[in-house]
Design brief:
Largest sheet: 10 strands, antiparallel
Radius of gyration: 28 Å
Structural class: alpha+beta
Oligomer: single chain
Number of helices: 19
Bound molecules: beta-D-glucopyranose, 1-deoxynojirimycin
Strand order of the largest sheet: 1-2-9-10-11-12-19-16-15-14
Strand content: 25-35%
Amino acid sequence: MEQQKRYGHFDDQHREYVITDPQTPWPWINYLGNEDFFSLISNTAGGYSFYKDAKFRRITRYRYNNVPMDNGGRYFYIKDGDTVWNPGWKPCKTPLDFYECRHGMSYTRVTGRKNGVEASVLFFVPLKKWAEVQKLTLTNQSNEVKNLKLFSFEEWCLWNAATDMENFQRNFSTGEVEIEGSTIYHKTEYRERRNHYAFYHVNTPIQGFDTDRETFVGLYNEFADPQVVIEGKPRNSHAHGWSPIASHYIEVTLQPGESKDFVFLLGYIENEQDKKFSAPQVINKDKAHALIAELDTTQKVDQAFAELCQYWDALLNIYNVRTGNDKLDRMVNIWNQYQCMVTFNFSRSASFFESGIGRGMGFRDSNQDLVGFVHQIPSRARQRIIDIASTQFPDGGCYHQYQPLTKRGNNDIGGGFNDDPCWLIFGTVAYIKETGDFSILDEMVPFDNQPGSEVTLFEHLKISMDHVINNLGPHMLPLIGRADWNDCLNLNCFSWDPNESFQTTENVSEGTKAESLMIAGLFVVTGKDYVALCQKLGKTQEAERMQKAIDAMIEAVKKHGWDGEWYLRAYDFYGNKIGSNECDEAKIFIESQGWCTMAEIGAQEGMVAKSLDSCKKYLECEHGMVLNNPAFTKYIYEYGEISSYPEGYKENAGIFCHNNPWVIIGECLAGRGNDAWSHYAKILPSYVEEKYQTLHKVEPYVNCQMVAGKDAFKPGEGKNSWLTGTAAWMWYTVSEFILGIKPDYDGIRIDPCLPETATDYTVQRKFRDAEYEITIHPNGAQKGVKTITLDGQPVDGTVIPYSAGKHVVEVTM
Ligand code: BGC
Ligand code: NOJ
């Protein structure tokens, strides 16, 4: 195997990924903030901040897909004699004597050294605060006195990230700032409808400032050589229109060995309508002063940072495994759970691949994300379920996305994705199993956010099931609508117009013909959960009604959904098979194999085993399982976007990591532990990290959405990191199906599925008011629990009954 260059390594003890070379193959980023105020930060301190909504409340400006890549961020320029450098190497790119970036749990520390000076910046958003802290520590490691000039830099976004990039005829005239002591306030549009402003503060007197971009940078200069920094002299510019920025100028003298801290604070404030101004045209700064006062010393900032670290300690102590395999343990205990929090917070809105403008919170995405997160902070998952369900329509259909700031359904994209409703059951059941909180089902939840339309959440689940039953096609299989989980399987779109969106048009058939086997499997899986829930609630009639529908669906799949060696993928508008041996291309698809094996449809007839074997035979490659095989080589009018992608990328035979776990769970249910593990390890970041840092390109500590498949120009190259349902599915798969610790209504079900090489391992699991220490002795078995003892007493079956307190569980397989 070709030895690849490495750019960093894991530091498990500190729960950090340590980047040792700033020139990573792509910006490797981290997220700051846990609720409300968020930032994206790259390994060179690029990125931006926003409040709740990356589109409507963008605080600082960022230019996507720029040249050079990742330009714009929070930059500190240090001028030491004639040398100007940045702790994170960019933007000046002055060669550093030492560089390191440590991405940790909601914080990033960037350290650079040059000519005997060390600059280390700790970036984080304190809990419950609407601000990003940037604690800069300058240390003189040389033997001489250092006289340094320090310039900070942030560029303001004019709030709406979309119009900020478009409406220059207006934007260049609206920008407004105020300067007070060491604080620069950004108040564009505050004079009219906005009741919010931002500020950039430093906790020391300054010797100058700049707030006008062209004055600071110079029209013909760049971030790499701002004229003010080159000249070593601020111009105290006051921005009127054009592009407002915030830059502090500080003169720093350091004796040999001396070290000084500077706390920079980027904050966001909202004022009540009648308290907006303290004098005509002057913003009311009371709240800003109060926020600054909470974070204006090293001590206060260190305290806030300690609280953030404790917060993560507590979150990561809920599920903790010791297998002795570092690569597995670090993903399970640290990075996979961390990524789940991030996807829960952001859905698919803001990353270095998602611009924060196009997509808010996805209906299906958020339901899946919360399954990866619910054990961490169940109360937030509860609120999310209510928010999502509130965007549903009375017939069970739903808005495909909603905006985090307003929580309103997004009309631009609308609804009609027929898998969406099922995911609400998936999310809600996971929440109840984790918490035992059935009361959520009695919450009154509106349709389309309309006051007065409220029904119980249970009713929302019921109409979700009914939406599938009421939308069956010619083979009694679910109609696909605009698309199912695969956004790009657009069987009702029929587009030859390049100006048309594939997914938002339905211009020929009104969606009454094309059917999805993926939804069929999804319906059976979530339907079984729904039936069990109804039984639990004593709703026997409803349980029976739905069981009939499930049985009918299973029959329909066996009759019309089986191709001989695998499950079909769909029927198109003309009733032709998709994903069949009869097709020229794309004979087999992964989604229906995943969902129909998870649903165990036709297990007795051997369908499940054959389907799983076919995945190995046709879909598997070195980097994971591809979505379909063979790839489409031409555009197919009646299939839509899926055939628009070049071979091996995205939904056309890319390794769409999100769906690999479906097959892995299918393997686990079938008891094939060796196969489950080998599929899992192929897309587990820590294994990829070891082998393929250069090829893989994107962050090695999290999953990305897509890795180029075997038909691609560059198989193994990753794209679209961070915001992917893969995070939640990897978590759900490893925690519940591989390691086998599965929350249930009345306790924890223990049912691991392991490779036969697995050795004894222990899981610490906090569950409601209990804490379990569960040790599993696999004894070479792939599946099958033989005995369980709870605090020394034998347990019947595989569910350890819940009771509060500390418990010790021993399991032999
Ligand atoms: C992508 C999908 C994505 C969709 C969102 C498509 O182009 O391939 O992965 O979900 O756009 O609009
Ligand atoms: C990304 C979308 O966010 C998700 O909803 C969809 O299921 C996948 N792409 C597959 O198309």
